[in-house]
Amino acid sequence: MQTQDIEKFEKLWNAFSKTVKGKLLTYSKDRPLTGGVARLVLSEASSAWFSDYEVCGRWLLNLRKEQPQLGSDIEKVLCHSMTFTDLPETNQWPIYLDIALPLVGAGAGWAVSYMLDGSKAVQWVSALATAVLTYSACRTIGGMSKDRNKDTAIDSYMQQLTTYHDQVISLLQMPPQV
User: Can you list the alpha helix ranges (DSSP code H) found in 67-119?
Assistant: First the structure.
């Protein structure tokens, strides 16, 4: 019976963890992924373990009927102690660099064209071109930094879920109590 319980739990857990990861990805597209948002997503997805109408909830209900102590212990893990802890602040691309670096680039473009005795029009075009190129480079680098931070946060939250998975598996592998 334990092997069947473990296999069934693995299938249910895979679906559950994919749901959580998908919702985290969806939420993180529109807004920053904070600990509060992640806990809300987890709470919403964990309702499947509470409900007798969901596959996860029915499995847990049947387990509680067949093995009350084991079912109660697993319920404590899945329904009561499963939560996300806040992640440490990550380094983000500072917003002021999106303004400061293009200004420096514009100044450098203007200075080079001035030193090469360019006309006023050439100086302005040079300053504007370097500012636009520097701004687009800053936005690209900032976007990559934001995406990397988002992926790291989601991976960290999924790693936290793994600890709860391991707890349930260890409970299921314990010999049945008589």
Answer: 68-75, 95-115
